[in-house]
Specification:
The complex is a heterodimer. By secondary structure, chain A is of the alpha+beta class. Chain A has 2 domains: about 170 residues, Uridine Diphospho-n-acetylenolpyruvylglucosamine Reductase, domain 3 (2-Layer Sandwich); about 110 residues, CO dehydrogenase flavoprotein, C-terminal domain (Enolase-like, domain 1, 2-Layer Sandwich). Chain A is built from 12 helices and 14 strands. By secondary structure, chain B is an alpha+beta fold. Chain B has 2 domains: about 80 residues, Beta-grasp domain (Ubiquitin-like (UB roll)); about 70 residues, DNA polymerase, domain 1, CATH 1.10.150.120. Chain B is about 35% helix and about 15% strand. Chain B is built from 5 helices and 5 strands. In chain B, strands 2-1-5-3-4 form a 5-stranded mixed beta sheet, sandwiched between helices. The chains are: A alpha+beta, B alpha+beta. Chains A and B meet through strand 1, helix 2 and helix 6 of A and strand 4, helix 3 and helix 4 of B.
């Protein structure tokens, strides 16, 4: 790697101060699994200084709060996979975390780092969008909380301003226990980038889909929702046919590219299949109580 | 910058530039060359070491990130009394051929068995997904890990010392 400066942040406040000090020249290191791989092979000059936040204890941990499920930005994928509270209130998050990279990368890589890469194929994104997650951002003028969907701007570009830091992800209280499922299709079972990934969630009321949410990865410049497919399902009786049709509609909302991994047509076909499976998976996850309300 | 860590139970330190990865720190500054440089981008797992109980790719971690932490490399597994059960089983069953992936595979397996003393075949396969081996086809490794798990559960006492040549 080309030489760069290095400074370690004690906590999030210190990290924000360091980011203010170094401005454009700073690059945040969380787990490092993406940043280091990038810095080794990029033709671009290295950052002036790497701000290592990996020891900031206040950015770690998973807890239920008044706002909902709070996941610190530095929480590793392995910690999410093994979290009892995640399995209880939002198990689809563990399904998405366990297919990221391999054990070694899941032990270092963090949820905040995954979101901040803002690559369209990220596996953390779709499930969190289906849960309508919020993210808290710290900066020189304090903290603000925005919908996760407002974080994603373009490939590798988030809405964070220079000097800002992602500090936590929140699954809102109203969406805890919402039946949700994640699907990924890669070229191998292990350690593969998603050709397409998808997540779906819905409540049921009197046998009808209520508040359906569908999110897609790797088929647009960022992870996206599929609003037309959601609108189609909303208020419609729960059925396999409706799930399949929602998949077909979502495929028309995707804007995939053709690259060396797969063609755009193939990716669109995958969207239809994975959305249907994610909806069926969410239905499987609904408790008997939640299903009873449905019938 | 000065980096101090506990490697295989010994406190070691060196003064290194910030861009030094843990892998370069171990290999070039501490001369512990058991962890291999394969892809150097986190795909192959040949550089796997254990940091505070977790298997990680040493090529994707800065030495500075490991400062103050406990690192186990392949050099730290065998004791005066003999090889670690995983090493012994891998040797006896021929679970390695060229051996380049071996240190990484054994450390990933050790981290797995330390957390989960009786893993299923599926759990072993999941754990090994980040360790590429192009010789063996993995079958003997998986058998060997099951075997080592049995040995480690039944016999807490150390294995007999290897015969001296």
């Amino acid at each position: 790697m080309k030489p760069f400066g290095y400074v370690a942040a004690k906590d999030s406040e210190h990290a924000v101060a360091l980011l203010a000090e170094y401005g454009q020249g700073a690059k945040v290191l969380a787990g490092g699994t993406d940043l280091l791989a990038d810095m080794k092979f990029t033709p671009h000059p290295p950052p002036e200084v790497v701000v290592d936040i990996s020891r900031a204890a206040d950015l770690k941990g998973i807890a239920l709060t008044d706002a909902g499920l709070r996941i610190g930005a530095l929480t590793t994928h392995s910690e999410i996979v093994h979290s009892a509270v995640v399995h209880q209130v939002a198990p689809a998050l563990a399904d998405a975390a366990v297919v990221i990279g391999a054990v070694q990368t899941r032990n270092l890589g963090t949820i905040g780092g995954n979101l901040m890469t803002c690559v369209p194929s990220m596996d953390s994104g779709p499930t969190l969008l289906a849960f309508e997650a919020l993210v808290t951002i710290a900066g020189p003028s304090g903290r603000r909380t925005i919908p996760l969907s407002d974080l994603f701007v373009a490939p590798r570009k988030t809405s964070l301003a220079v000097g800002e830091l992602l500090v936590e992800v929140i699954v809102p209280k109203a969406n805890l226990y919402k039946p949700t499922a994640f699907q990924k299709f890669g070229l191998r079972k292990g350690q593969a980038l998603a050709l397409v990934n998808a997540a779906a969630s819905f409540w049921t009321s009197e046998g009808l889909f209520s508040e359906p949410r569908i999110a897609l990865g790797a088929v647009a410049p960022t992870v996206i929702r599929a609003p037309k497919a959601e609108a189609y399902l909303s208020g419609r009786p729960v059925s396999e046919e409706a799930m399949a049709e929602a998949g077909r509609i979502a495929a028309t909302e995707a804007k995939p590219i053709t690259d060396f991994r797969a063609s755009a047509d193939y990716r669109r076909d995958l969207v239809a299949v994975l959305v249907k499976r994610a909806l069926a998976g969410a239905w499987d996850r609904a408790t008997p109580n939640q299903k009873e309300l449905a019938s | 910058m000065n980096v101090t860590l506990t490697v295989n139970g010994e406190i070691r330190s060196a003064s290194v530039p910030p861009e030094t990865t843990l892998l370069v720190f171990l290999r070039e500054h501490l001369l512990l060359t058991g962890a291999k440089t394969g892809c150097d981008i986190g795909d192959c797992g040949a550089c796997t070491v254990i940091v505070d109980g977790k298997a990680v790719n040493a090529c994707l971690m800065l030495a500075a990130q490991a400062d103050g932490r406990a690192v186990t490399t392949i050099e730290g597994l065998a004791t005066r009394e003999g090889l670690h059960p995983l090493q012994k089983v891998f040797e006896e069953t021929g679970a390695l051929q060229c051996g380049f992936c071996g240190p990484g595979v054994i450390l990933t397996s050790k981290a797995l068995l330390d957390e989960n003393p009786d893993p299923t075949t599926e759990e072993i396969r999941t754990a090994l997904a980040g360790n590429l081996c192009r010789c063996t086809g993995y079958v003997k490794m998986i058998d060997g890990i099951h075997e080592a798990a049995k040995m480690m559960q039944s016999a807490t006492p150390a294995l007999p010392a290897p015969e001296q040549r």
